[in-house]
Design goal:
Elements: H1 2-26, H2 28-47, H3 51-72, H4 74-95, H5 97-104, E1 108-110, E2 115-117, H6 122-133, H7 138-142
Antiparallel strand pairs: 1-2
Helix pairs in contact: 2-3
Amino acid sequence: MSREIQEKDEEKQSGKWKRVGRFCLKYPVSVLFALAIAYYAVQAYVFGISPFINRLIVYGLVVLWILWLVARHMVKLFLLLLFAGVLLYGWNWYATREIRKCEESGRVWNEETKACEEKKTIMQRIELLLNKYLPLSESQKHE
């Protein structure tokens, strides 16, 4: 019974080391950054060997590690942004199809009524603005 338990514990231990080994092989740069940060942090905070410089080195390594992670995932981020841009452009193209069709036919799209109308001359536009902002009463219209 105890032999079986010992064998299972050994298998668990070897499984843990295999996972650690796989992680180290999969992410060697991250492991190097972590080891370098640990080394300089121990020198600065535990042993007190030139703490200011070693702290600066630790902070610099942390920044470099973050930049490395961002750069490593930059291609994925770029493709994601490109895909989002294509989706937004497609949606805008689809949503404005009636406006484009109206303008291609030589007419004008009215935003207020959401309808396609014939182009108006300058005098017609002035008359519409006057009627909109300076409405005349019925008695003034006939005079």
